[in-house]
Amino acid sequence: MKKLLVFLGSCLLAGLFVFGSQVNNQVQAAEKTYEIGTDVTYPPFEFANEKNQYVGIDIDIMKAVAKSEGFKVNIKPLGFNAAVQAVQSEQIDGVIAGMTITPERQAKFDFADPYYKTGVVMAVQKDSKIKGLEGLRGKRVAIKTGTSAGAYATAKAKEYGFTTVTFDDSDNMYNDVVNGNSAACFEDEPVMQYGIKTGLKLKIVTKPAEGGEYGFAVKKGSNPELIAKFNKGLAKLKANGQYDKIKAKYLSTESTKKATVDYSFFGLLKENKDALLSGLGQTLLLTVIAIFFATIFGVFFGLLGVLPNRFARGVSDTVIYIFRGLPLLVLALFIYTGIPSLTGQKIPAIVAGVITLMFNEGAYTAAFVKGGIGAVSTGQMEAARSLGLPYGKAMRRVVLPQGIRIMIPSFINQFIITLKDTSILSIIGILELTQTGKIIIARNLEGFKIWAMIALIYLIVITLLTWLSKYIEGRINN
């Protein structure tokens, strides 16, 4: 028994070391490239085009500056809130995401020279009778987490008697108003203008307020050379006219009209099938790797929980209690942004995702391993011991084979749960199926149809796995 536990523990540590080393080698191979975080749904500043490549004013400016100053950038679409936290934990080098320069942010970030001036506007449904802030009394307003527009709305909420509800991305915020759940939303003027020009069923009813400026940011005191390079490159872009060309490319009426695209369900499926399949592939890969480590983790702590040793059982119960009790979203953010803040060591998103799933799913696996072994009649162990078998050998030869028959359906069910739980990892920028959906929706604003496709894909895969589970369970019981 001790040998089995040592073997499982060694496998877990060795596997994580090899997996982490391979990912870190890839990161180190590109250590001269700056990792730049951005939003996922903030057109015209950042969004994915028809080829699922990130474009927009922010992206084009960042790439043009990099080319001008002789460095490379790796753009990471994390979402605004996650990108800001990733900079603070030094997971990435900088953030360019329509980030308004404010005194509060300047206390924690170093900003480059401003590259865009904007203001906050309020938008409502096209047929709404609301004409200004006065019409919001007693109503609900949608805002986006961590934005200056959201801060402006929050500051006005008490004065004008409305309540706010927050969203992590712009598309969900807009749809909350379009669907009538909220009376209005607040957004930066060029972003809202772009959305309306490309088919968003809203209208602007206020003049720009709280005029601010966007800036590229790094963690305070951490990257002065990158700030200097950005400022130098931006000055060159403005001097040679490239900066004005980038703005015109996305803000002119002609460039923001919807292309002639088939917006039917099957038309959108045909257009985005490659991106969706890529997202599905990443989801399945992440699931397989995570369930591998979660199984080793779960079996190890599950077996600890049935040892005739109070300390071992206490360790098992504590681990299961902690990791089953933590919400997966909180655990993912803690591992990806919290731990690097304390240690100063970067954790690649894919590694953080696997560790998150390993702890969470492994805790549930440990629980049903304990349950499976506990379901075997105690008489089996007593009979084996009466025949002179030591505890470890009796467990391996007699109890475990019977317990495994009971556990197998639960193992497959846990695989299904892990597959679904990968969607939460979009919060740390892993480009799995859910994150892919967000990116596609940011481009075409067809939220219902795209989410229906993603739901259908999950349903098909989970149905196949469920059939497999029933087949295996039937074979075992026959």
UniProtKB/TrEMBL annotation:
Membrane-topology annotation of the record:
Multi-pass membrane protein
**The ABC transmembrane type-1 domain covers which part of the protein?**
280-469
Query: Could you tell me the keywords of this UniProt record?
Result: Cell membrane, Membrane, Signal, Transmembrane, Transmembrane helix, Transport
Signal peptide region: 1-29
**Membrane spanning residue stretches:** 284-307, 319-339, 450-468
Where does the record place it? Cell membrane
- Tell me which CDD domains the record gives: PBP2_GlnP, TM_PBP2
InterPro entries in UniProt: AA_ABC_transptr_permease_3TM (IPR010065), ArtM/GltK/GlnP/TcyL/YhdX-like (IPR043429), Iontro_rcpt_C (IPR001320), MetI-like (IPR000515), MetI-like_sf (IPR035906), Solute-binding_3/MltF_N (IPR001638)
Principal place where this protein is found?
membrane
Q: Identify its protein family.
A: Belongs to the binding-protein-dependent transport system permease family.
Name of the protein this chain belongs to: Glutamine ABC transporter substrate-binding protein
Q: What is the species listed in this Swiss-Prot or TrEMBL entry?
A: Latilactobacillus curvatus
Report the gene name: glnP
